[in-house]
Amino acid sequence: MTAALQAHGLGKKYGRRWALTDCNLEVPSGHVVGLVGPNGAGKSTLLNLSVGMLTPTSGSVEVLGEPAGTQQAKVGYVAQDTPTYSRLSVADHLKLGARLNPQWDESLAQQRIQRLRLDPKQRAGKLSGGQRAQLALTLGLAKRPELLILDEPVAALDPLARREFLQDLMEAVAEQELSVVLSSHLVSDVERSCDYLVVLVDSRVQVSGEIDSLLATHHRLTGPRRTAKELPSDQYVVTESHTDRQSTFLVRTERPILDPAWSVTQLTLEDLVLAYMGREVQPERPVLEVQR
Prior knowledge:
It is a single chain. The protein contains 8 helices and 15 strands. It has helices at 43-50, 90-100, 106-115, 129-142, 159-176, 187-193, 211-217, 269-278; strands at 5-14, 17-27, 32-36, 58-63, 66-67, 75-78, 147-151, 179-183, 196-201, 204-210, 218-224, 236-242, 246-252, 263-266, 288-290. The strands form 3 sheets. It has a 7-stranded mixed β-sheet with strand order 6-7-8-3-9-10-15, with helices on both faces. A 4-stranded antiparallel β-sheet has the order 2-1-4-5, covered by helices on one side. The chain has a 4-stranded antiparallel β-sheet with strand order 12-13-11-14.
């Protein structure tokens, strides 16, 4: 199956500063992918490069098997500030969407506007933040894309508006069989809506895989003090901490942990994400990818 998004040595430089460097990534089709990382990790730059809004300084990025920017009709995009035109009405936005997108689904757009109770005559500048986000999502969905890219679309919304937006997104995914890449710094949003995770730190993918599989293969071990070298070779150490008498390791392994000296606990998604975000980034470390 063709990857939804694939980057090879991808980099973007502004003057002397690299916003993204040497990024290698493969996002599979058929998933709702949560792209998570700290501020400055390069998430927005990566997504802007992926939709052709930026040109790479180095490397390459492909979307749906073709160079980025050549598949506009198949890719929907909602940017970080959920952009709309403040002076245009809701109806004007739909007319613009119909003119710019050959696969535009007017029926879907009108149904969403009615269900959301948006006044077609209302200017976008007079809408609430949640309403603008829903309008932007409507434009992205009504073009009937194969891939929908969302760059922190709910970051500025209140909890209720955020929940409604994500519920609408999940309904659309089920109805249209979309592939989705959702960038977010809120793990709760990823947990609620995504089935695949990518953690990006300093432009490098630290871990990727189906969320259920990642959670099933990562464990916290607590027990008598020992070094990482004393652990079995199949236990990959993500993080470790020690006191005078006790050691705590976060490990990834696909085998049962049989050592009775360890107290073994499962991780939450937030535990897992924070562990990979907090560890020192080393280019030579392997990317952990888990597939079912």
